Amino acid sequence: MIHVSLVPRSCDRCYTSKERCIWAPGSLTCERCARVGHACRSKRPIKRVGRPPGGYLSSSMKRTRLGTQKSDMSAKRNKNTATTVTTTTTTTTTLAPAMVEGSIGQTLLSTIEGLGQPELDLLNRTIHQDDFTEQFVIGPSFYHGHRQKLVFHLLSSRRIVLDAYLAFALSCGDQAQVNTSYKKAASALFTLRSIQIKDHLDITSCLMLGWQLLHFVFQLGGREILQVCSQTLSLLKPHYAAGKHFETSHLSFLTSIILTETAECLMMTKLPTLKLHHAEASSHIDGCVGLCTGLLLHLYDLAAINVDMQNRSRQGQCKTKGLPDLPTKLEDVRLKIRDWKPQLQTKIFAKFTALEVAHMLCQHQIMQTAALLIIHRLQHRFGKEDGTASALAATILSQIDLTVHVTGKSPLCVDLPLIVACLEVEDDSAREQRLRSLSAIGRHSAVFCDRIKSMVMQVWTARRQGRIVFWHDIGHLLSRFS
């Protein structure tokens, strides 16, 4: 007999509305909440008959261990017959992301079999310690939700995501652990290339797999950033259609990958994989990009025009067959970006700390200014109309300086604006100092910082050689970095 605790129950919204709550197999949200874009939660007390149950932690751990044991027994039986990576989850636990409290999640990690204590310690460190969490979300208000998703997918989709989690965790350890991290990353990359997505849980598990691999690359690599982003988003794209958007609770992981890929594509003159359309994008306050979720759509359009202008330049025609009037398209995007404003909610100042709000406002202002500076350099080559470009670059750098002075740390996701601004800074030592001190990723990864420093230097070398460089020419100059 199925225990009452394992039977899916109506979410709070359907229960209150007295609507039928229908759950697809493996889904984390009911069909009604998914259709209307609501967060699907079941937080009301469970009413049970008979003897009162034991503590929540005890029952959760029992279900997790039971599911893990069953899964491991099944895996042993099928060990010699498996030929492809499937997305069958490794536990039958009914834990939902919102149910995984931080302290509970930390205890549950110890139930994962096959890991030594050093690996468990690193996983706990990268998931639960604030000094790691602050690398990925704007501030403490987002820590809890971020950790819930990490723990949930590690428990529910272990065979899909574990190697990627370990690859990043080990990359933050000593040299021996770093060496081992490459093996885990290779295994995780094979999983990413072989994964078969069948349901909603597979979608979010694939998202977490790619997200962890991306941060491994940030830590130790650099050249594979675009490959990991594009591979992940290519897998998700067929499932990212109208009416099938990702639930808002996972949006920050998606925006992180989309922004990273879009930034790389703008530098490398390539077309991004996925254009973000989300019902709540314009008003969503994101743990990664803050108030800038709605701006990602315009950045995609800007990247597409960048590619078209490169194609036109190579063909040496003012207007190329099949390409619209690009100056008109560019001006249209410029006006949209110039006039774009996030839908600020009055509750933002009550819900978030003053430092978090300062970081969000900085992100918004410098991301918008960086996009306008890119457009300026698509219209005017480097070395021409430098007054306007210098003013835009100074605005970006001074805004980051002010935010660092007020909050004590660099805002997240400012690396694209930082690179765009430093391309206008002629002094090599001043440029290097800013790249090394203001890059949020660079503070944790010297490899990443050296990469962006070399990219900027490559453009400046071409400028000093007297080459004519528009923004759409940068991709050719930086081809060795991709």
From TrEMBL:
Superkingdom assignment: Eukaryota
This protein's record includes keyword Nucleus: yes
Keywords: Nucleus
Pfam families with a match to the protein in the record: Fungal_trans_2
UniProt keyword Nucleus, yes or no: yes
Comp. bias (Polar residues): 57-72
InterPro entries (UniProt xref): Fun_TF, Zn2-C6_fun-type_DNA-bd_sf
Any GO MF annotation of the entry: zinc ion binding
Segments of this protein annotated with the region Disordered: 45-86
This protein's name: Zn(2)-C6 fungal-type domain-containing protein
Native source organism of the sequence: Metarhizium brunneum
Upper taxonomic lineage: Eukaryota, Fungi, Dikarya, Ascomycota, Pezizomycotina
